[in-house]
Amino acid sequence: TSYRIAMELWPGQPVPVMNNLALSLAQRGLFDDALTMLRQARVMDPSVEEIARNIEIVTNLRNNVIPKAH
Predict the structure, then answer these.
(1) Most confidently modeled of 3-7, 12-16, 24-28, 66-70?
(2) Which of 12, 37, 40, 47 could in theory staple to 22 by disulfide, Cβ–Cβ 3.0 to 4.6 A?
(3) Phi/psi class of residue 15: alpha, beta or left (left: φ > 0; alpha: ψ in -120 to 50)?
(4) Would you state the torsion angle of the CA atoms of residues 50, 42, 33, 67, taken in this order, to the nearest 10 degrees?
(5) At what angle do helices 31-44 and 15-27 cross, to 10 degrees?
(6) pLDDT tens digits for 19-61?
(7) Phi/psi zone of residue 13: left (φ > 0), alpha (ψ -120 to 50 degrees), beta?
(8) What is the spatial distance between Cα 31 and Cα 68, in angstroms, rounded to a whole number?
(9) Do residues 38 and 44 lie in contact, with contact meaning Cβ atoms separated by under 8 Å?
(10) Which DSSP string do the residues of 30-52 spell out, in sequence order?
(11) Could you tell me if 21 and 1 are in contact, meaning their C-beta atoms sit under 8 angstroms apart?
(12) Over the Cα atoms of the chain, what is R_g?
């Protein structure tokens, strides 16, 4: 995707690009991939509160969209 290319070419901090890529993945219903990307971004820069907030949002979306096994 274009976000993945941007991450490779971006000369600065990749965390904002990772955040945007994760949100794009979540929009397409790829919640596990989105959460993996957000968690990686969180490890790279734990000071970005937006990442923590997005982890919570995507986790809630995933839990409400994917049916739980009974």
Answers:
(1) 24-28
(2) 37
(3) alpha
(4) -70
(5) 170
(6) 999 999 999 999 999 999 999 999 999 999 999 999 999 999 9
(7) beta
(8) 14
(9) no
(10) -HHHHHHHHHHHHHH-TT-HHHH
(11) yes
(12) 13
For residue 58, CA distances in Å to 8, 19, 54, 69 come to 24, 11, 6, 19
Q: Which residues are within 8 A (CB) of 27 and not within 5 positions of it... i.e. 6 or more apart? A: none
Q: Which residue has the tokens 């995507």?
A: 58
The pLDDT of residue 1 is: 60
Amino acid at 11: P
